[in-house]
Design a protein that fits this description.
homodimer, 28% helix, alpha+beta, 7 strands, 141 residues, Bifunctional nuclease domain, 38% strand
Chain lengths: 141, 141
């Protein structure tokens, strides 16, 4: 059964190329970091802070495409942790109600998830959550 | 009548945050630069060079979404040059043949366009091309 998590912290460090976001279990205390690039972290940070750029940035364009194609975001699921790297699926609901799963890096999927209203739920499989908590190397996403 | 252009040069400079791509008229000599960020320039450069990352990067995710929603890329049109900034439309063809235009930065649209096979045509309106050639400030895109 996947565990719902939410973005709990974004740690930006300008002198490093590696940044960290933390996901915490909704209604729980289990939390784990995902190491992402500075560009992806800045995207998430800007979006959490509600910054609206004059032109659509990359993740806004993605939202625009999905809206134009009459689909909607359903959820994000972090499905795998392999070789210190997380893998995720972005789930979309098409206008005929079919749900489609598309391979995504967690960072892209989370950048989209955090700015929708209501927010798109983020899940992690119990297996990945256990592996994440046991991993001291801070895998990338 | 829009003028078809193609990516003719990517100038990457690691000590600057501003990079340049050049678009040249297909079958002609008119050429103009668009100043873009290092992240966007690196994306375009990687894609032109055929680098296939193990996980889908942001523009690959966008292609994945469009494919999953049974649409296809039709063209890119650079439509405006206002206050030293270019604006573009990413045109998609839906499976019912309707063509949809979505606001995009030229850099995102071109990152997608350059890697499709066959390549997605890139157009610029004659008005924007004339303004670009007359502008010595190298507007951003």
């Amino acid at each position: 059964m996947p565990v719902q998590v939410e973005l709990s912290r974004i740690i930006l460090c300008e002198i490093s190329e590696k940044q960290a976001i933390y996901l915490r279990e909704v209604g729980g205390i289990r939390e784990f970091p995902i190491i992402i690039g500075i560009y992806e972290a800045s995207c998430i940070d800007r979006r959490v802070k509600g910054y609206h750029p004059p032109r659509p940035l990359t993740h806004d364009l993605m939202s625009g495409i999905i809206h134009a194609l009459e689909a909607d975001f359903e959820s994000v699921v972090i499905t795998e942790l392999v070789d210190e790297t997380y893998y995720a699926k972005l789930c979309l609901r098409r206008n005929d109600n079919a749900v489609l799963e598309i391979d995504s890096r967690p960072s892209d999927a989370i950048a989209i998830a955090v700015t929708r209203s209501p927010a798109i739920p983020i899940y992690v499989t119990e297996e990945v959550l256990s592996a994440a908590l046991a991993d001291n190397n801070k895998p990338q996403g």
